[in-house]
Please model this.
Amino acid sequence: MAKISKTRQKEKQNARRNRQEIVKAGLDRRELMRLGLLTSAGFLIPKRGLSARALNSAGMPDDIPCDSPPTAPFVQELPTHINGGMVLAQDVPAFSNTAECPPQAAPCPSPREGRTRPHQAFARFPPARLIEVHQR
Model:
């Protein structure tokens, strides 16, 4: 067994205690995600044993393993049009993004039509509450 300094041993025990606090609190992965500890917000909490990016007092990363557990590789290939798992539609609609709409086409499916909220019925179903916000 390799010789470990007392300081390093103490750091490892402290990291283990930090992880046990989470287990004792009964937090599952979903709750940790909600709290932001598994996302980039976890980077802001450099508590050793919880963050794989936490540095020691010398500003160096330690060798305490905080990595994610190993995952199984994908067993099914992702179907794409490149490997033939997906077929691209060859027929182009009558009014594509580059085509201008003829005057008899209403509503025009072109993005240049100007609608910002398609398929909304604000006249038929008005909002139940109106909140006005003013900036001073």
User: Anything to note?
Assistant: The chain has a mean pLDDT of 68. Residues 6-25 form the longest helix (20 residues).
